[in-house]
Structure formats: C-alpha cells, structure tokens
Sequence to fold (1028 residues):
Amino acid sequence: MIRLEGLTRTFQVGDSLVRALDDVNLEIGAGEYLSIMGPSGSGKSTLLNVLGLLDTPTAGAYWLDGVNTSTMTDDELAQTRQRQIGFVFQSFHLVARMNALENVELPMLLAGTPPAERAERGRLALEGVGLAARRDHRPDQLSGGERQRVAIARAMVMQPKLLLADEPTGNLDTASGAEIIRIVEKLNSEGLTLVVVTHDRQIGERAGRRLRLRDGRVVEDLRREAR
Amino acid sequence: MVFADLLRFTTRSASSHRLRSALTALGIGIGVTAVVLLTSIGEGLHQYVLAQFTQFGTNIIGINPGRSTTFGAATGIFGSVRPLTIDDAEALKRVPFVINTVPVVQGTASVEGGGRERKTNISGVGSEMPVAFSFRVALGEFLPPDDPRAPRPLAVLGAKVRSELFGERNPLGEMIRVGGERYRVIGVMESKGQVLGFDLDDAVYIPAARALELYNRASLFEIDVLYDKAASADEVVRGIERMIIARHGGLDVTITTQQQMLEVLGSVLDVVTFAVAALGGISLLVGGVGIFTIMTIAVRERTAEIGLLRAVGAGRGQVRSIFLGESMLLAGLGGAGGLVAGMLIVAVLGIAIPALPIGFSPPYALAAEVIAVLIGLIAGVLPAQRAAGLDPVEALRTE
Amino acid sequence: MTYRDCVRVAGGALVRYPLRTLMMLLATAIGVAAVLTLTSLGEAARRFVSGEFQSLGTHLLIVLPGKIETSGMGPGLMAGEAPRDITLDDARALLRSPAVEKVAPLVIGAATVSFAGLERDITVMGATASLLEVRGWKLASGKFLRDEDWDRASPECVIGHVVRAELFAGQPAVGQWLRVGDRRCRVVGVLAEQGISVMVNVDELVLMPVASAQQLLDVPGLFRVLVQSGDRDAVLRAKREVTAILRERHRGIEDVTVITQDSVLATFDEIFGALTAALAGIASVSLVVAGVLIMNVMLVAVSQRTREIGLLKALGANRRQVTWLFLTEAVILAIFGAVAGTLLGYLAVGMMHALYPNLDFQPPAWAVGGAFVVAVGCGLVFGILPARRAARLDPIAALAGR
Fold:
C-alpha cells in the first residue's frame, strides 16, 4: 500500500542543513499496525507528515496505492488526504466554536456531502466512539479523552484506509489513553492501516511492527506475529 | 515610566505587528488625505474667487439704483423709479475722500469694424475707469476726460474684440459702428482674461453718456466710487448717502463696499471649505472605528503580557497609558502619512493641472492631524480601560 | 464544499467575535449611510430646483431681449441690455403663431409703495391678465388684473400676501388706494401665499397692468415675455415660430433669446447630477477605509485561526476552499454592513425629511445600488489578501500554530 524509496527530507535551519529524514526505504502493507518510536528530533513527526501528504520529500519517492505522490498537484494531495487518510493529533485540534457533531462533519463538509447524509454518518461515527450522547457538546465541555474520541470519529468519518496518529495519548491520563488505544486497535483489526508515533514504550510495543528512528534513519524494524 | 520609555515601549509593540499597525494607520491616513485634498480644493476656490474680486482694488464702493439689502444687485437690473445719472456720478466726486467716480452702463451690441461684425459686451464708462479698476491700456490711450454729459464718440477695444475685428492690424484711428453709431478707436486694453466666467477682453468701452443713449435709458447701472485708502469705508459711505439723499430726496440706491462683498463671499466660501472638511471627516470616523477594533483585539491578544507587566509592578494607570499611547501613536502616524500624501497629491495636481484652483490650507491640515490623534485617543479609551481593569492573576493564567 | 456550508462556517466564525464583527459592520454601515445621505442631499437640491422650474408650467418658453451666444446662464442673461427692446407689440405679435396659446409680457422694477404713512421699497411687476393662468397663481381675495387692452394703463394693482400684511395689517386691502412711486392705484386683489418662485418672491410683489408699470418705471421695453405653447410637443415649434416672428419684426436681426424649460432643466440636472456624483465619490472614500479595516481584522483572524486552517488542510481542504471560507467572511461582513448602512441611511434621510418637510430627500437608485456594490466590492477586494494568506499557509506549521 505504501512504498518509500530513498526518502529524504532536509530543512534549512539557520546556516546548517538538517536531515530530518535520510534515505528511508519502507514498505507498509494494507491493514498493518505500525508504531514509530525514537528520540526527539529523530524524524518521527516528519515521517508522519510525509506519509500524511502534509509534507513533501526533498528527494526520493512516496508511492501510495501505486501512485507516485510527487506527481500530484496541490488539489490532488488535498483530495487524497480527504478521502484516504485520517489524522489524530496529540492536541486534538477540534474547532472550538463547533460542537462535537459539527467537528465530525467537517471533512464531509469539505467534501461537499449533502447535509442529511452528513448528519447520519456523523452520528454513526460518534456512536462508534461511544459519544452519541455528547454530540451537541462543544470541545470545552468535553474531557480530554472525549475530545480525542471526537477527533478519531472525525478522522474515520470519511472511511480512510490509513490512520495516522501523532502521540494520540500524549495529552491524556493513563485510563483515557488506554481507551483511545483500544479504539484505534479495534479499527485496525477491522482492516484499517494504523501508524502511531509515540514516545510511550508500552504503547509502541503493542504494534505488530515497530520502527525505530534515529537521526532520520530507520535503525530498527521489528515484526511480530499479531497477538 | 518616563515618557521616552513609554514612547519606546508603544513603538516597539506597534512595530511587532507591522502590517496590522500599518493598515490601522492607513485607515486614518486615507481620512486625513481626504480632508487635506478637499480643503485644499476649497481653499483654492476661496483664494481664486477672492483674487478675482480684489484684482480691481479694494477701496471701491459700488452704488446701484434701487434699494436692496440683500447681497448682489438684485433689483438694480430691473430699472428704478429715480434714475442714477451721470450728474450723480459727477456730484459724488465732491464727497470727502472720494478720489474718482466711474459711471457704468452695460449691455450687448453688435460692433462693426475692419469689415467684420461681432456681438460683444458694451461698457459705457467714465475716463477714470482704468485707474479705478487697475486696468491697463496696451495701445493708444483710454477715453479722454471729456464733458461727461456730451462726450465725443470715441471707443477703446478689449483685446479680444481688437483681434477679432482687426487681427494684427493697428486699429488706432479706425472707425467702428456700435449699434449703428460711428466711433473712432483710440485705444486697446491689455488682456485681462476671464473673471468668474465673464470675458473682460470681449468688450468695447465707450463713454457712459453715449451708452445711455444707445440703450435709450435714463439710469446708470452702477456708479463705482474710488476712495482714499486712508479713509474708513463707513465714513465714505455716510458721505455718499448724504449726497444721494440731498439729490434724490431719499436713499433709493444700494451701496456696496468691496469690503462687505469680500466679507460675505469669504464667509460663504469658509462654510464651503468647512463642509468639505466635514465630508472628509466621515472617513476619519471610520478610521477611528478601525483603531478601536484593532486595539480591542490587541488587548485580548496581549492579556498575558499585561498580566506580566502588572506582576512586575506596573500600575493600572501605566497599563492604560501604554495602550492609549499605542492607539494615539497609530492615529498620529497615520495622520502624518495622510498629510504627506495629501500634500504630495496637491503638489502634483498643482503641477499637472495649473488651471485647477487648489491651495494647501495649513490650518485645516493641522486640524486634521490633531483630530486624527484625538480620534486615536477616543478610540483607545475603552480598550485601554479594559486592559487596565484586567486582574493580574487572571491575566497571567491565560496562555 | 457547498456554497451554503461555506456561508455557515464563515458566519459561525464571525459570530464567535461579536465585538469586532459589529465594528466592521459599523464601519461599512457608516460609509454606505454617508453615500445615501449625501446623495439624497444633492438629489433634494436637484429636485427642488427642477420643481421650481416645473412650477412655471411644463410647456413654457421665456423670451428675453439680447442674443446670448452661448447656451445657459451667461452674464448677459442676468445683466446687460440689448440694443433693441422687445415691445408690447412684439409680444402681441407672438399670438399669431398657432403653436402659441398664451403670452404674458413682463416688466419688473423697484418702486416705493406707500399706504397711510407706511412706506416700503417693493418689487413692482407689470403684467397682464394672462399671467395668472400662465403661472398658475391663486388669489386669496378679490380678483386679478382685468383682461383688457394691454396698452391701457388702468390704475389697478394686485398685491402679494406679505405686502398686504405689512401695509394693511389686518384691514381689508381690496378697494384701498395705494401710492406706487408717483402714481396711485386701487388694490383689486391679493395673491395667496406662493413663496419664492424662480428669482422673484411673489409674496412681496405689487402687480399692475404692464402699461402702467412701463410708465412708472419709464422703460419702453419688456423684461421678459412668457409664452405658453399648446402642449409639450408644441414647445419646439413655438420656439421656432417665436424666434421667426421676432426676427421679422426686428428687421431680420435675431436679437432675442428664447429659453425653453427643458434646456434650463437639462443644464440644472447636469450641474446637480455632477454635484451628487462628487458627493457620492467623497463618501465612498470612507467605504475604502472600511475595506482596509475589514482586511486588517481578517488578517488578524487568519493569524489567530492558524491552527484551524492547518486542521482544515489536514482534513483535505484545498487552497480554493480555504480562500473561499475567508473571502466569504469578508463578503458577509460587507453585505450585512451595507444592508445596515442602507437602513441607517434611510433613517437619516427620514430625519432630514422630518426637519425640512418641503425638501424631497430621496437617495437616487443608482446611489443605493452603487453604495451596495462598492461596499461588497470593497469587502471582496480587501478580503483577497487575507484569504490568500490563509490559503498559502503551510499545513504543518499552521497545525503547530506557527
């Protein structure tokens, strides 16, 4: 499903050139559960951004479903993000002035889905994360765990093939974090490709395939049979 | 905090949001530019009109037949019960401080000369007219001081009539026909151009008594009295009134001093200039709304900063003056930019279209700048008050 | 993204910051209201003047002595005398034209009018019976000048209502003898209140037969001749024929000016139209200032909502969609501001109308539409920069709030 070939991403910081990703070669199959770990500045987030088509590599190629993403226009990239990729962020990124349902509806709104269908799918997505009763609540009326569940519902409402989670439990207490992991692992068991960036060793260990980065290079790529 | 520090502090915070500050100032700047431009046009018009009037000299009193207290010779043109005569004009010369009097009859007639014919303005005047109105003769001489009741048929041409009838030829000594009567040309006037739409060069000057005959009327249009500059206009007017009453048995004329006319005109034009300044002020008002909005946003954004300031010992008054200062700084800078822009446009217009009456008005420009700063002050009061009223602990907690 | 969703999201963002939204609406509203108020002032002046001329009757021609080369109000129209007068016989001859229905010769001058020791300098108008109908005046009491031979100088007069009030103070005026200059005349009628009608204050007027006035004022010619043509279509024919008749009577020289009301009206319309347009232009400057404010606040909004923009991009919004979201906000502001300004403007116009009920304040349709279009145009134009800035944000940096 995903193939990275000699992927390199460099940043100009002041006078020096920083290699956030350095010649990364990687293949991720459909339905895989992948965790990315490594120290700060090892390139975890950059890799996730590139995978999510938010960032474009300086060199190398990124094939997504057999399409070389470097040939895509800005609009095509946006559309691919909209249809095929879901994001979950450490800081949730909910729109403060919108209630839970409206936040979940946002991707469908951008896609031009008719309102009636939107409401129905939004409701189902919230039900899927156990928040059907909270759909009229605004983010500031929700707990951290609930907010992240809304974010997951929003990420999944377009039924993407790939879910990218950047430290999804970083801002949560242990119990809420476990609940979030349970939800995304369930989605993975239903066939979703899941990539989680985390500092948390315990969470990282749960994945079927564990990637370790250091200085922009893949230094460890462990696979284990699913539990 | 000393003033210099306050200034440095506000300048720095204003320049940290360069584009935002620039746009806020631009709003005020456009308003000030509008005021400067509009008042310059108003002022230019003012100067233009006054110059048109004063070019005939300021120590002139006009006497028109018919009593009218309103401005302008409203009823004078309709004819009158008791005519104003050439004898009246002669008698008025005896009034104290009067230097000269000029009887005036005006009309149009067709003038033939040099084999051509032209419809032109006819001015029946006295021999002293060039002195009284500071007109100059370009060629030959003006009408001689004949017996005003029986003058010889002599004529002086305006510059345009001369060129239309005689071209480049010397018209002196030529005969022309004015309304059928024959006149000998003895002079040509210097070109005066247009005055308030009236082409002074498109005229033929003949003796007043002959003009009265031509138009078969008893009364002059006007007698213009030139008086000693040292004398007061009121005193001369009283003398004229006594003379008219003595001769007519009543005051049946309208006496207008040049001063009165200038005053009335001046006040009308002042109102016009003020009105256009007020129109430009609408934009300043909108600019003020802009400052208020941006300052409100700034207070909200910088809540943490305000908390920190309070925590390190700033008083409410100091916080207030920081925001008020920023607001006034923005307005003042915008206003100054608007002044410069307005002055530039005025200068460019002045060079590009010299005919356009435009004159920069420093008092209005200064007033616009002062009002701009005042608007900054007023627009800043509420946001500054809000900033000063913030609870330091609460303010620090944000962010 | 559908159009309605775009409006809903943009509207939601605006509602979130009520104060600044209100301020931007206010700024736009002031501009639009200024355009409406100022243009309605100009329009009122125009209507007032054309109303004045219309009150002369819609198919009137004015004949005055002297040929004015240029059209319009040259100096010769207000002052100056032509070599040849228009005589009463000339005026009478105009009735030969089939296009001419009525002719009213006029002489105007000033004279001292006295009654029972009271004295006043008053405008005296010499006229004929036809004037009453040509001008459409009404009588308060008595009757108008009688329809007699124009050359008869009957010792009769009709007075304006202010003259009556000042000289007769309560007593009946009709039947009394007035002294006008060196003559005496009997008051036969009093005019109803008319107000100022084109240059002459009818209320402060003494009317007498044209021949009497000519003798009194010692003028052989006429000041004006008012000619009423059969109908509107006959005006041009009447003008041609009047000119022809007078040229023939004046030995082939065309030395009169015939003004039709249409030409005067057109000139005034032009002058006041230009004035109104200039006022609209001046007021529009404030709309530009409002536009600058909208741009400024939208720029602030873009920087404050950087994370939201980053999120939208991560969720698959393309540049066009982000651009439209912010443009829509600016345009909504402009539209609502313009609507509020229009209401505010009409309110101001209504207040002016209450203060000066006899002036017809009415913002012209082009100004109402134009102000709206300019306001929305300003919103659109000044919204472009912030919207583009939003659309160009790098999603990663935006998500991080940078």
In short: Residues 108 and 121 of chain B are 4 Å apart (CA to CA). Chain B touches chain C through 56 residues (CB under 8 Å). The first strand of chain B starts at residue 60 and ends at 65. Chain B has two domains: 3-52+264-397, 82-251.
